[in-house]
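User: Run a structure prediction on this.
Assistant: Running it now.
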Amino acid sequence: MMKTEGTNGNEIRIILCIEFDRRATPSEVAGLKSVLTNSPNCIHSTEVSGGFDLIAEFAAPGIGWYKNWLSELAEPFARTVDRYEINFVFERSVKRIVDEDAVWVPEKSGFRRIDNMLIDKVVAEGDYVRIYSQGQSWMLHETMKSLSQQLPPADFVRIHRSMIVRFRFISRVAREDGHWTAYLLDGTQAPVARSHVGQTLEVVRSRGRAFREVALPVTLQHEMLKLQ
Protein backbone atom coordinates (compact mmCIF):
# COMPACT_ATOMS: atom_id res chain seq x y z
CA MET A 1 0.00 0.00 0.00
CA MET A 2 1.54 3.31 -1.07
CA LYS A 3 0.44 6.69 0.20
CA THR A 4 0.28 9.29 -2.52
CA GLU A 5 2.29 12.32 -1.51
CA GLY A 6 4.08 15.02 -3.41
CA THR A 7 7.65 16.13 -2.89
CA ASN A 8 6.51 18.75 -0.40
CA GLY A 9 3.95 16.50 1.26
CA ASN A 10 1.06 18.78 0.17
CA GLU A 11 0.36 17.39 -3.29
CA ILE A 12 -3.21 16.24 -3.90
CA ARG A 13 -4.09 13.48 -6.36
CA ILE A 14 -7.46 13.98 -8.06
CA ILE A 15 -9.51 11.45 -10.03
CA LEU A 16 -11.84 13.21 -12.47
CA CYS A 17 -14.66 11.20 -14.09
CA ILE A 18 -16.56 12.84 -16.96
CA GLU A 19 -19.69 11.99 -18.92
CA PHE A 20 -19.90 14.24 -21.97
CA ASP A 21 -23.12 15.92 -23.02
CA ARG A 22 -24.45 14.09 -26.08
CA ARG A 23 -25.59 17.45 -27.45
CA ALA A 24 -22.04 18.82 -27.46
CA THR A 25 -20.31 18.97 -30.84
CA PRO A 26 -17.37 16.64 -31.56
CA SER A 27 -15.03 19.63 -31.72
CA GLU A 28 -16.16 20.83 -28.27
CA VAL A 29 -15.61 17.37 -26.80
CA ALA A 30 -12.22 17.01 -28.47
CA GLY A 31 -11.21 20.49 -27.30
CA LEU A 32 -12.04 19.76 -23.66
CA LYS A 33 -10.29 16.38 -23.83
CA SER A 34 -7.20 18.08 -25.18
CA VAL A 35 -7.20 20.74 -22.45
CA LEU A 36 -7.48 18.09 -19.74
CA THR A 37 -5.15 15.37 -21.01
CA ASN A 38 -2.44 17.77 -22.23
CA SER A 39 -2.31 19.56 -18.91
CA PRO A 40 1.14 19.24 -17.27
CA ASN A 41 -0.71 18.18 -14.12
CA CYS A 42 -2.43 15.26 -15.84
CA ILE A 43 -0.70 12.01 -14.84
CA HIS A 44 -2.72 9.69 -17.05
CA SER A 45 -6.15 9.43 -18.67
CA THR A 46 -8.37 6.68 -20.02
CA GLU A 47 -11.38 6.77 -22.31
CA VAL A 48 -13.96 4.29 -21.02
CA SER A 49 -17.46 3.03 -21.67
CA GLY A 50 -20.28 2.80 -19.16
CA GLY A 51 -21.31 5.54 -16.77
CA PHE A 52 -18.45 7.85 -17.80
CA ASP A 53 -16.56 8.63 -20.99
CA LEU A 54 -13.22 9.85 -19.62
CA ILE A 55 -11.32 9.19 -16.39
CA ALA A 56 -8.17 11.18 -15.65
CA GLU A 57 -5.83 11.58 -12.71
CA PHE A 58 -4.25 14.92 -11.84
CA ALA A 59 -1.55 16.01 -9.42
CA ALA A 60 -2.57 19.24 -7.72
CA PRO A 61 0.19 21.23 -5.97
CA GLY A 62 -2.28 22.21 -3.28
CA ILE A 63 -5.87 23.00 -2.43
CA GLY A 64 -5.54 26.54 -3.81
CA TRP A 65 -4.50 25.25 -7.23
CA TYR A 66 -7.38 22.76 -7.14
CA LYS A 67 -9.97 25.48 -6.47
CA ASN A 68 -8.63 27.72 -9.26
CA TRP A 69 -8.46 24.77 -11.66
CA LEU A 70 -12.08 23.82 -10.94
CA SER A 71 -13.18 27.43 -11.38
CA GLU A 72 -11.49 27.66 -14.79
CA LEU A 73 -13.22 24.46 -15.91
CA ALA A 74 -16.69 25.69 -14.94
CA GLU A 75 -17.48 27.30 -18.30
CA PRO A 76 -16.24 24.52 -20.64
CA PHE A 77 -17.89 21.96 -18.38
CA ALA A 78 -21.20 23.80 -18.63
CA ARG A 79 -21.05 23.63 -22.43
CA THR A 80 -19.67 20.11 -22.88
CA VAL A 81 -20.18 17.96 -19.78
CA ASP A 82 -23.42 16.34 -18.70
CA ARG A 83 -22.06 14.91 -15.43
CA TYR A 84 -18.77 14.70 -13.60
CA GLU A 85 -17.37 13.42 -10.32
CA ILE A 86 -14.18 14.31 -8.49
CA ASN A 87 -12.51 12.02 -5.97
CA PHE A 88 -9.33 12.41 -3.98
CA VAL A 89 -6.71 9.66 -3.74
CA PHE A 90 -5.65 8.88 -0.17
CA GLU A 91 -4.07 5.46 -0.57
CA ARG A 92 -3.25 3.30 -3.54
CA SER A 93 -2.82 -0.44 -3.91
CA VAL A 94 -1.03 -1.52 -7.08
CA LYS A 95 -0.33 -5.09 -8.12
CA ARG A 96 3.27 -5.65 -9.12
CA ILE A 97 3.67 -6.16 -12.84
CA VAL A 98 4.52 -9.74 -13.83
CA ASP A 99 7.60 -9.96 -16.05
CA GLU A 100 9.53 -13.20 -16.52
CA ASP A 101 12.72 -11.38 -17.55
CA ALA A 102 12.74 -8.67 -14.90
CA VAL A 103 11.71 -7.59 -11.43
CA TRP A 104 9.58 -4.47 -11.02
CA VAL A 105 10.52 -2.45 -7.94
CA PRO A 106 8.52 0.42 -6.41
CA GLU A 107 9.72 3.99 -6.70
CA LYS A 108 8.18 7.22 -5.42
CA SER A 109 6.36 7.92 -8.67
CA GLY A 110 5.62 4.35 -9.75
CA PHE A 111 7.67 1.28 -10.63
CA ARG A 112 11.04 0.62 -12.23
CA ARG A 113 11.97 -2.43 -14.31
CA ILE A 114 15.19 -4.15 -13.26
CA ASP A 115 16.36 -6.72 -15.78
CA ASN A 116 17.17 -10.03 -14.12
CA MET A 117 20.71 -9.99 -15.44
CA LEU A 118 21.32 -6.56 -13.88
CA ILE A 119 20.42 -7.80 -10.40
CA ASP A 120 23.58 -8.32 -8.36
CA LYS A 121 22.11 -9.75 -5.17
CA VAL A 122 18.92 -10.03 -3.17
CA VAL A 123 18.93 -9.77 0.63
CA ALA A 124 16.02 -10.60 2.93
CA GLU A 125 14.99 -7.86 5.36
CA GLY A 126 12.09 -9.02 7.50
CA ASP A 127 8.93 -9.27 5.39
CA TYR A 128 10.74 -7.55 2.51
CA VAL A 129 13.68 -8.18 0.22
CA ARG A 130 16.23 -5.61 -0.93
CA ILE A 131 17.20 -5.75 -4.60
CA TYR A 132 20.75 -4.60 -5.38
CA SER A 133 21.66 -3.53 -8.90
CA GLN A 134 24.53 -1.41 -10.21
CA GLY A 135 25.18 0.38 -6.94
CA GLN A 136 21.51 1.07 -6.13
CA SER A 137 18.98 -0.82 -4.03
CA TRP A 138 15.20 -1.04 -3.69
CA MET A 139 12.87 -2.62 -1.13
CA LEU A 140 10.24 -5.02 -2.42
CA HIS A 141 7.40 -6.67 -0.49
CA GLU A 142 8.21 -10.19 -1.61
CA THR A 143 9.44 -13.48 -0.17
CA MET A 144 12.84 -14.98 -0.93
CA LYS A 145 11.15 -18.19 -2.04
CA SER A 146 8.93 -16.58 -4.68
CA LEU A 147 11.75 -14.35 -5.92
CA SER A 148 14.17 -17.26 -6.19
CA GLN A 149 11.60 -19.05 -8.35
CA GLN A 150 11.45 -16.05 -10.67
CA LEU A 151 15.20 -15.58 -11.13
CA PRO A 152 16.84 -17.90 -13.68
CA PRO A 153 18.54 -20.75 -11.77
CA ALA A 154 21.33 -20.88 -14.34
CA ASP A 155 22.49 -17.42 -13.32
CA PHE A 156 21.66 -17.11 -9.61
CA VAL A 157 22.57 -19.12 -6.55
CA ARG A 158 21.08 -18.97 -3.07
CA ILE A 159 24.04 -19.04 -0.71
CA HIS A 160 22.04 -18.45 2.45
CA ARG A 161 18.38 -18.40 3.41
CA SER A 162 18.58 -14.61 3.42
CA MET A 163 20.72 -14.02 0.29
CA ILE A 164 20.57 -14.79 -3.42
CA VAL A 165 23.56 -13.80 -5.56
CA ARG A 166 24.07 -13.58 -9.30
CA PHE A 167 26.80 -16.06 -10.12
CA ARG A 168 28.94 -13.58 -12.03
CA PHE A 169 28.76 -11.16 -9.10
CA ILE A 170 30.84 -13.59 -7.01
CA SER A 171 34.55 -12.85 -7.27
CA ARG A 172 35.68 -15.90 -5.30
CA VAL A 173 34.58 -18.47 -2.78
CA ALA A 174 36.88 -19.57 0.03
CA ARG A 175 36.83 -21.89 3.00
CA GLU A 176 38.12 -20.12 6.08
CA ASP A 177 38.14 -21.46 9.65
CA GLY A 178 35.89 -24.30 8.60
CA HIS A 179 33.25 -22.04 6.99
CA TRP A 180 32.63 -21.09 3.38
CA THR A 181 32.52 -17.40 2.43
CA ALA A 182 31.49 -15.79 -0.86
CA TYR A 183 33.39 -12.62 -1.80
CA LEU A 184 31.33 -10.31 -3.99
CA LEU A 185 32.31 -7.73 -6.59
CA ASP A 186 30.97 -4.84 -4.51
CA GLY A 187 33.66 -5.55 -1.90
CA THR A 188 31.31 -7.25 0.55
CA GLN A 189 31.40 -10.84 1.71
CA ALA A 190 28.68 -13.20 2.80
CA PRO A 191 28.72 -16.57 4.55
CA VAL A 192 27.61 -19.60 2.61
CA ALA A 193 25.23 -21.49 4.88
CA ARG A 194 26.16 -25.11 5.57
CA SER A 195 22.84 -26.22 4.11
CA HIS A 196 23.64 -24.37 0.85
CA VAL A 197 27.32 -25.30 0.48
CA GLY A 198 26.59 -28.33 -1.70
CA GLN A 199 24.33 -26.39 -4.06
CA THR A 200 26.73 -23.43 -4.20
CA LEU A 201 29.74 -25.60 -5.01
CA GLU A 202 27.76 -27.51 -7.62
CA VAL A 203 26.79 -24.23 -9.28
CA VAL A 204 30.39 -23.07 -9.23
CA ARG A 205 31.60 -26.40 -10.60
CA SER A 206 29.12 -26.35 -13.46
CA ARG A 207 30.04 -22.87 -14.64
CA GLY A 208 33.09 -23.97 -16.57
CA ARG A 209 36.82 -24.42 -16.46
CA ALA A 210 37.69 -20.70 -16.68
CA PHE A 211 36.04 -19.87 -13.38
CA ARG A 212 37.58 -22.88 -11.63
CA GLU A 213 41.09 -22.15 -12.88
CA VAL A 214 41.13 -18.40 -12.35
CA ALA A 215 38.81 -17.52 -9.50
CA LEU A 216 38.79 -20.46 -7.12
CA PRO A 217 41.30 -21.44 -4.48
CA VAL A 218 42.73 -24.96 -4.57
CA THR A 219 40.74 -25.98 -1.48
CA LEU A 220 37.49 -25.24 -3.34
CA GLN A 221 38.58 -27.24 -6.36
CA HIS A 222 39.25 -30.20 -4.06
CA GLU A 223 35.83 -29.76 -2.45
CA MET A 224 34.14 -29.75 -5.84
CA LEU A 225 35.89 -32.97 -6.87
CA LYS A 226 34.02 -34.70 -4.05
CA LEU A 227 30.76 -33.80 -5.75
CA GLN A 228 31.69 -35.50 -9.01
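Residues 48 and 54 are 6 Å apart (CA to CA).
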